[in-house]
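User: Hey, quick favor. My workstation is busy. Could you predict this chain's structure for me?
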Amino acid sequence: MLSPRESAGCAVYLGHLYMAGGKDELKLELHAAAKISLLVFNGALLAVGGSDGFTHLKTTEVYSHENNTWRHFGSIKSKHPGGRVAALC
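Assistant: No problem, here it is.
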């Protein structure tokens, strides 16, 4: 990683550690939303919710390892936007 981050989402997927979002030491948001949640569910890496600094995001995206791309997977309904998620198995 090129810079330290806080409030980033992280998950282990296919033997690799993935991190998304967060803020750097100057509290500037990085390329994705801060406070985003990453989780592996049913064999897929998902990015859920988060905040872009102005708006609480209500989207879910799924990662394609083969194409190194993210695509929209759906929207979430929540009374607590920007909250964190966890998957318990």
